[in-house]
């Protein structure tokens, strides 16, 4: 796989908790230069890992990013040093 150089590479943390079926999580993404990304879902109270997903990322000609798992995909963009999940309006920052 080709190595990528891009501003998305690195670790991103959610600015707010994400709700899935009434349960809240703190999300974290780690984007790698090989086009892979790991998505982590943590319990916001205990900080324990609840879920983990292995995905792929690509950047299109418009500067938007697509994350996919081979079945589903989501669009993201970077603006004002924030990563934004276009579909859900979730924002992520670097620490």
Describe the protein in words:
The chain has no helices and nine strands. It is mainly β.
Summary tags:
eight-stranded antiparallel barrel, mainly beta, 95 residues
Strand order of the largest sheet: 1-3-4-5-6-7-8-9
The total count of strands amounts to 9
Biggest beta sheet summary:
8 strands, antiparallel, barrel
What is the alpha-carbon Rg in Å?
A: 13 Å
Explain briefly what this protein structure is.
This protein is mainly β.
Show the helix and strand layout.
Elements: E1 10-14, E2 18-20, E3 23-31, E4 36-42, E5 49-59, E6 65-68, E7 73-79, E8 82-85, E9 90-93
Antiparallel strand pairs: 1-3, 1-9, 2-3, 3-4, 4-5, 5-6, 6-7, 7-8, 8-9
């Amino acid at each position: 796989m080709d190595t990528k150089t891009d501003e998305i590479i690195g670790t991103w943390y959610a600015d707010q908790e994400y709700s899935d079926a009434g349960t809240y999580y703190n999300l974290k993404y780690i984007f790698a230069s090989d086009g892979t990304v790991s998505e982590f879902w943590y319990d916001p109270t205990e900080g324990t890992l609840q879920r983990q997903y292995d995905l792929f990322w690509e950047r299109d000609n418009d500067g938007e990013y697509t994350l996919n798992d081979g079945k589903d995909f989501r669009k993201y963009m970077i603006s004002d040093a924030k990563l934004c999940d276009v579909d859900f309006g979730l924002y992520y920052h670097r620490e």
